[in-house]
Every structure is written in C-alpha cells, then in structure tokens.
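Worked example (supplementary).
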Amino acid sequence: MDLPLISAVFAAFSITMYVLLDGFDLGVGALLLLQSHETSRNHMVDSITPTWDGNETWLIMTGVTLLAGFPVAYGILMPAFYIPLTVMLLALGLRGVSFEFRAQMKQYRQWDVVLGIGSIVTACMQGLILGGLIQGVAIRGDTFGGSVFDCLRTFPFLSAACVLAGYVVLGGCWLYLKTAEESRHFAERTLRLALPAFLILFSLACVTAVSIQPEVRAVWKTHAVSLATIVGMMALAAVVLFDGIGKRSDLRPLIAALSMVSLGITGLAVLIFPNIVPFRLSLWEASASRLSHIFLLGGAIVVTPVVLAYSAFAYWVFRGKTPAEGWEI
Amino acid sequence: MSDTQRRGLWFASLYVGSIVVVALIALLLSGALRLL
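After joint prediction of all chains, the assembly is encoded as:
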C-alpha cells in the first residue's frame, strides 16, 4: 500500500477543511473593520463564536501530518516561511485573545479592531505562504537554500490579497446564512463587491503564476482539460453565488462559495501533484519511514472522526439564525 | 498509463471522495438539502 500517498491525501483533506471552515470565520473577522454599528458587530461575532476555535484544529492536523509524514518537506518549508508562519501564529493568538477579552471586558470597539486586524493578518500570511509555494522554494540538497525574505515578493503579495478576498467572500456568505436584518444586508452589500474583487484577483494571480513559474505553464499544457474544467466549474459556482445574493435561499451562496474555494484547492492539487514541495520534491522523496506513516495514519483514523463529530455537533447545536441578543440567553 | 498518472488518479479519487463524503454527511445532517 502506498502510505505516503494516503498521508498526502490526508494532508490535502485537512488543509481543505481548514480553509473552508476557518476561511469564513477569518472573513467575518476581517469584515468587522467595515461595520460601524456595534450591535451588528456583536451579531457577526456571535455567529462565529461557537465554532471558530474548533475550525483551527484542521490546521494543526495538517502541520502534524507534514511533520510526521514528510519531515524533509517540513524541514524545507518551515525556514522558507518563518516570517509568515510566525506572524500568522501570533495573529491567530491575537484573535483568540480578542474573542475572550471583548466578551469579558465589554470593550467591544477596541477588541473588534484587534480581532479584525488579527483576521486580516492571518489571511494575508496564509496567502504569502501560498504565493511563496507557487513561485517556488529554493532547495540545496535536502535543505532550504533560499532566503527567508523570498516570500516577500510581488506574487506572494498578490496571492495574499486573493486569499483575503476569498475569505471575505466566505465570511459574507456565512453572515448571509446566519444573520438577519442589518447584518444580512451588510453581507449582501459585501458580497456584491467582494466576489468580483476575488475573481479579478484570482484571474490576475493565475496569469501571473503562469508567467513567473515555468512549471505552472508546463502543467497547464499537460493537464489542460482537467484545469480548464476546474476553472469552468469555479466560474459556474461564482455565477450561482452572485445570482443567489438577495434571493430567498440563505444557504445557496455559502454552498456555492464553498464549492468555488474547494475547486480552487483542487486545481492547486493538480498543479502541485506529485510534489509536496511544489515543483521540487516529490511525496516519496520527502517521505518518512513506513512506520511513521503507519503511526500517523493510525492516529488520523482515530482522531478524524472525533474532530468531525464534535464539529458536526457544534454546528448542529448552533444551527439556524444567530439570535440578535446572542447565544447566551 | 505511467506510474505517476496511476498514483495521481488514486490521489484524486481519495481526495475528492473524502471531501464529497464529508459534504454529503454535512448536508444530510443539517437538513440543508431541503433548504436549497
């Protein structure tokens, strides 16, 4: 059995779950900076309070899979992205602190600003990492051979803006589903601006990636049909999303946005496979021993259903519209 | 079919399959299919 392949599937699954689930609460956090009404901001925060921390479990699972299953890739990627990873972890911590402090200290304005900045910085750092991966990581032997500043170039910044816009779309769709009245109108207005912004940035990022990374160009030639199909389906999801704004179904925009982002990640997987360090190192070259994969996948088989179950339970308990007066009633 | 293509098909099937299964379970549990 090809254990490195199964571990890579698990890593891809975990990062997809993370982007889909934490994506919308990072988007809601970022949107706090654009909402001046305190009541609406409280409503927005209440919509993500029960589930935001559980969503981050998937990021930890991705990191652990990379460390245990592909230590060579971990050893290369960590130093390559020390700056965005460190800033991202600090920003995630800041978000956690602001969730707690805004509730305890009742200083909503100040802590909402901190929550908003933490969310934007987290999204941008993830975009920098994504951009850095696509532009290519320098390798010398089995170690990182570039500079920690390599990821601070034009393309990673474009990718950061694209990821932020994508998360704002997800956040807008979440608010559209979970809130009513003023917050829902706010979500509608946001989506009408954020979706075109995301599509423009995404198109720009695709064109730039093709021009700066010859390997991306090569994959577009060898997998033209599958990549074109994915892009076409993304466009279709975007049309369904845009058409659903302001319509009766609260859920349709969110499902369309989740489908659009999932398809984007699938396209990325097509670009990168069979490598784990894009265009440089394959899954099998970076793989740990067979015993490590058995240990890792054994843990994943036990932990994944538990995480899925408690996430499902949390979403089910807090289903429906978020009450205007919050959940603590 | 080359070895990389065969592995790619396995990867794609397992990855897309796992996401679709989770999505379907989520939709069924939430009763969302009725809301669409």
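Two points are worth noting when inspecting this output. DSSP finds 13 helices and four strands in chain A. Residues 220 and 251 of chain A are 34 Å apart (CA to CA).
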